[in-house]
Amino acid sequence: MMLNSNFSKALCFITTLLPITLLTGCGVGGGTASQSSSATPVSAATRGYVNGGNLPVTGADVNLYVAGVNTPGTGTGYGSGATLLIHTKTDQTGSFIFNSGDYTCPTPTQQAYIVVSGGNPGLGGTVNNPYITLMAALGPCPAGGNLLIGDLTHGIAPIPFINVDEITTVAAVWALQQFMTPPGSSNTNAPNIGAPNTTYTNGLSAPNTLSVQPAVVGMNNAFTTAKMLADIATGTSPNLNYPYATPESAKINTLADIIATCVNTDPTASSICSNMMADATPSGATTAADTIQALWYIAQHPIHNVSNLYGYVTGTPPFSPTYTAPGTLSGSVPSTTAFNDTTIAINYAPVSNNLPVLGKAFGLAIDAYGNAWFTNQGQTAVSGDSPTGAVAASIAELGPDGNVLLAPVTTFNLSTTGGSASKFTVAQPTNTRTIIIPTVLAIDLTNQPWFVNGDTAYTGGFTACSTTDVCAGDLGVFSASSAASVAGGSSSTGYLVGYGPSGMAIDGNNNVFVTNPGNSSGGVSSRQITHMSALDGSGFTSSAGAAPNTLPGGSAMVAVDTNPNVPGGIVWVENFTACPQPLGGTTVDFGILSLYGGTAAAALSKSEVATTYDPNATTGAGTSGTTGNCNQTNINIGQLLQSPMANPNAISFDRNNGAWLTNQIHASGGFDGLTYITAPADALGTISSSTTLVNGVASSSNQGVATSGTTMSVPYFSEVDGNNNVWVSVNSIRSIVEASVDTSGGTPVITLQTPGQGSAITGAAYGLGFVHNTLNSRMLAIDPSGNIWVTNEATTSYVNQSGSNTSMTNSVTVLVGAAGPVVTPISLRMHNKLLGTKP
């Protein structure tokens, strides 16, 4: 009778707490596994066990590597440079030993991983299955030491026991996929992991310099993420050592079960392995030759052949619970527990002083070391959650593995000199500001996080308003982290800016741009773009010309590209509002854009473009009239796009300075969709072409009428990854969307890379996305490991790995390793001209 491996491993984990002489049978007995070990004391070895499904793998090769950190040539550096430290084999119980004196971790400290290949998966006789390749991500290998000794001074714990199986293999491949070599004959049974050590700087003089190796940071953090998916001591998921982290363990089990079917077979008597390799391999690629290569393809191509792959989960699978078959619908959307794609997510719900650290988290930004900064908009205690408690409006910081670096902070101090202080007639006293409704986050070139302190007012001292008027809004700034494990926020300041701050962006020259769509007649720089230096808030100026959000309602988001035709790039402002235009008796909504030169924050002369829907907007500076300009008089509204775009909310740029916009109209006459705009080819801000995806259909005609639809259903925020693909948080369908664009033919052609029409999800909406434990999603950010972080505002609770409830609004969802790694923060990415490009 075959035991369920989760039970046997749990038993093994318990017995590891007993004296080591009692561990025979848990994979640590039997000295024959080591090449030179019998005379070495038992306590001086790292020991392990290899389990294939639910059986020991005997006679397998066991190799301990450290990942490469290497100087790349053109197009190299990822997935190269790994070093073999020691080789051994598993004995008749599936056990192995690494004696402490047999190897030394190199200098500087590098990340260790173990690979097991070949062997007999408990089938008796002389069977050897060459398709077996399993691995476990171990983490830092202490310089000059070994795994058993560790280095507690630098936070590197000893590793006395390693349980290698399909679960640890899935965890390692998904977390490290961006740093692995694509399948080929040279890396069969020997996956190569590495990162380029290219250093990027911010170009500022001391003491404001910043120098970082983003790819190395990303790879090191990815090893940490692997621990969040599985426990290498037990070979199971979740890892109970991190109770705040809830991975999609059932999906991890499902993926492990798929390859276990191959691992536990004799390939000379069955075609299961060869069939699986073919099913995992995308068209035109080198056929996978081992289980790690198959998993790498499955991770990199998350909607490829999911139905066939799920077919390998048969009988009583060794790992449970599992996901249900592909195509399962729950209402109008796929079930969150159906195997419709192969992406894996983790929900982090950290706690500090027995209170949630995240509470209705809205803004999100990743710093230079992969730390995540959040704006909490605050929430009351959610009944039934554990722990429960109110979270005040605040700023918080998490490490790459979701651990708390900075517990929620609720106040900051205003500067008396920087920002719009010069606009006031009397010196403003330093005073403490309370964080009210913080929204957008951005991180500057010195790694300091900035946030918009939304819906706040500052009164008094300004010539144009009385003490009762709303005069200005403010931004807060926190001190930077200096490493992935070090908290920022030890000091904070803030600056007065224009009235009603809404959107904020920091460019590659360390300028801060803020949209101020407030409409108070006495406000500082209301309905303008304001701009200042991120170093000290100096150089505060306000834009002239076309103003953001001149139509009633909505807020204006802002982003900056690196367009070489305009010094300092182009500042793009989206107005979250609609401009109805009559067309054949049907109201069609069109979004509005304003474009500014990044150096002076002045409107570009072609910020408005005439369209058939707005015949009066012909001068480029805006015209007044009662029939054009959205029927508004004496105002400048910005540019009306030449293809449907409605209620644009967020904007991000690719390596060609093309702009992605999310559109949120989903009522009659409107649509949910994505718009891609070709970068302006001149210094005037002229937009030559754009394409909008409406219900999965590209609408490039000016005369096209957008219809109510379900494409993505309220797409909210977006960011472009290192592969030049855009990722979009979806507000209402618990999903995350990936899309690409092809501009080679002139007119942009958008392709959704996520499930939808023609996929295994029968009847699903086009472009539905990768479905995970998200709801009411807001901001999205990509880190140097290729993880996608998404904030959620829903108070709906889920069961965490400890069996108690956690509100989604108290958590952040992280899609593991699915995106191309990027330089962070975005300002450093822009400074080094790496939009849409891997570091």
Largest sheet data:
5 strands, antiparallel
**Unreliable sequence segments:** 1-42, 463-468, 581-588, 608-628, 632-636, 699-709
Helix content: under 10%
Please give the number of β-strands: 52
Strand order of the largest sheet: 13-16-52-49-48
Give the termini distance in whole angstroms.
51 Å
Overall average residue pLDDT: 83
- The outline comes out as globular
Structural class: mainly beta
Please tally the helical runs, counting DSSP H or I stretches of 4 or more residues: 8
Percent of sequence in beta strands:
25-35%
Query: If you compute it from the alpha carbons, what radius of gyration comes out, rounded to the nearest whole angstrom?
Result: 28 Å
Sequence-ordered SSE layout with sheet pairings:
Layout: H1 5-15, E1 45-52, E2 55-56, E3 61-66, E4 68-70, E5 83-89, E6 95-99, E7 110-117, E8 133-141, E9 161-164, H2 166-176, E10 194-196, E11 200-201, E12 211-212, H3 214-229, E13 245-247, H4 249-263, H5 272-280, H6 291-300, H7 306-310, E14 329-330, E15 333-334, E16 345-348, E17 351-352, E18 355-356, E19 361-366, E20 372-376, E21 394-398, E22 404-409, E23 411-413, E24 432-434, E25 437-443, E26 449-454, E27 473-478, E28 492-497, E29 504-506, E30 511-516, E31 528-533, E32 541-542, E33 556-560, E34 570-583, E35 586-597, E36 602-603, E37 639-640, E38 648-653, E39 659-664, E40 672-677, E41 690-694, E42 697-699, E43 715-720, E44 726-730, E45 735-742, E46 749-752, E47 770-771, E48 777-782, E49 788-792, E50 797-799, E51 805-807, E52 812-815, H8 826-831
